[in-house]
Amino acid sequence: MLAFCGAAPGAGDAQGWITHPEASATPVVLHFRRELDLDDLPETLRITVTADNRFVLYVNGKPVARGPSTGTLERWRTSALDLAPHLAKGRNVVAAVVWNFGDIAPAHQQSVATGLRVTGDPIATSQPGWRVRRDAGHGASDGKKQIPWTYYVASTPEVIDAADATWDRDDPEISAAGWVDAVPAPAAVRPLIDDPLPPQTFAPAEPGVVVRSSSPGLGAFPAVPITIPAHTVAKLLIRRDAMISAYPELDVDGGRGARIEMQYGEALYDSANLKADRDLVGDRKLRGFHDTFIADGQPRTFAPLWWRTFRFVEIAVTTRSRPLTLRALRVHETGYPFEQVGSFRSSDAELDRIWDIGWRTLRVDAHETFMDSSYWEQLQYTGDTRLQMLISYAVSGDSRLARQAIDAFAESDVDGGVQQGAYPSRLNNIIATFSFAWIGMLADWSQEQPDRELPARHLPRMRRVLAYFEPFLNGRGLVGKNPHWNFIDWSGQRWDDRDSFPSWGQDNGSCLMTALWLGALRQGAALEADLGDRARAAEYTASAEKARTAIRANCWDESRGLFADDAVKQVFSQHMNVFAVLYDIATREEAHAILDRIVKPGAGIDAPEGMYAPTYYFAWYLVRAFEHAGHGERYFDLLRTWRDLLAFNYTTWPESRGETRSDTHAWSAHPTADLLGLVAGIRPGATGYARVRIAPNLGSLEWLEATAATPRGPVRVRYRVANGMLNADIDRPAALPGEFHWRGKVYPLSQPRTFFTLPAY
Predict the structure, then answer these.
(1) SS3 content of the chain, % helix, strand, coil (to 5)
(2) Dihedral (C-alpha) 331, 336, 339, 343: value to the nearest 10 degrees?
(3) pLDDT tens digits along 643-674
């Protein structure tokens, strides 16, 4: 028999949402509970659960679900699960902590009104029996005030005062103090959808070791408990071997009134607030946000509700009249549950490290959405996400997070066609050029994934993006300035000076913007020809050709053998010339010379003096230009930039060149995909990955073993170069036909496992 227990009945609104009678203000943390007496255990007890803004659901004190997965106000997500495996005979407590940090929450978290919604008899929130308590001891502070020197919109610092906090949420019996009947949440429309994503990981990980402390006796923590005497200020700096996104938990005992601050950081800074070798400690300091815990003398576990990204943690303790014992520090790694299918190992250990660091960077930055930086922003930006998607395809083969991103950006709609540059988000951040990157996502998907419905469904949205830029064409046929941010790259552009790059020229016409539009038109034409309207495909092709003619007529500088960014030929960038090669604005003969002119020999991706140079992000397009021109073998030269970074002991790749804000920025991780696709040579050979094309560029490698994920299963290659011969061992799924390309010749893959012995040079 199932029965509910509780005080006076309460019921949710028409959709079953409930809340606390005094929960309108934020930040707020609420605890809900529902008692359930069972004479017999049910075979199943299926429910759905969601909350505004976030929740953790518990059964008998054990967490069983977290969410809701980050969505939008138009597509609010719910989680489905079966509670039966977590139940016992007798009294059970189904509980939830729900929090809404309002305007100081991470910017990707949207909200209507604080509340909880559970469906499924007999514990639906539309039925009586739910009780709620506001946690007076758990609050939040503004992270921007702790990090005022740079742009920060991510994790909210939390404050937990144990003396006032709620600790009895999961107890079988509770006192009446503080607990009231849940009431209907304010009426609101949230279209609900089933969460298409799997649960995020929650796996134990090593917390790290103390690398500096205020007293020698503190260094044994967290391997063993330590006690900090009364009236003492103590600090411990803990370093992990590698960056992580994780939930930290700190167990303490005693120390009534003691104040504990846990500060998180990616790296340490010197006295001039500069970073260097990421392993250096010395007298360097942490500059990051912190959570605050205040002990009440009882054994407690302090844990923020949201995960943190860190390599370093500093625990600062100020005790009062009683000693405090730090009993344990635990971390549980979290992120999107990618399963690693791909791998890369070679005779060059540095390439192996580059591959590994990139894969770690992606995982640290991938959660319920892709994120630009899991420490500083936690926002899904279109330009970043396109590159992250390609890594996920090649290494995991899991396309669900990519699908989420394509749909989310399509949903954002600004100014008659363009999209938000970061979405989901509460903030308005329109980056017009990133709408082109979204079209690039569709083009990538059509090559990498067999599902044709997704790009076909988004063709109307693509058409609106392409049409948006037509009214801005000037008399020369070049794209003029629109009212939004036209981000190209951080090279030459500052946050407070968004008009410096690209250049608009004296007649408001940008060659660089026109090249971007041209590339998107070409991608749109291919998508229309394959999935949509062939007449429209022809129109896009014609428009692209007009744009090419305008660029060649107005932007080609014969004396320099380069394309200028503007029609008056005053500004030159590597970026403009990359697109000129990549989108065939340059002739085949011009392209080879252009590529020589836009990179500095022996300096990786660096551009010569007098030309805007790329960041790690834009280098992906630079690589594509070299590959498009038939110079894939030069990729090893471009990787010099990432080899140089290894000397700084990064464990995830940074955002920008030189002194960088973010040490965990997945837009810099694209070598992980290119080492599989360009070096090992495993790529789609037809739309929808209907075939595989294996065309390696081995450089001076003596051997290479790699695996790449495909929609039809993994493809494995093993190469050995010795005595002037290449030995290639290729293993592919039987359902995936393909060819092996080597030194201008094509060899069919006649068997699922095929061997070749060919001249190496």
Answers:
(1) 25, 30, 45
(2) -90
(3) 999 999 999 999 999 999 999 999 999 999 99
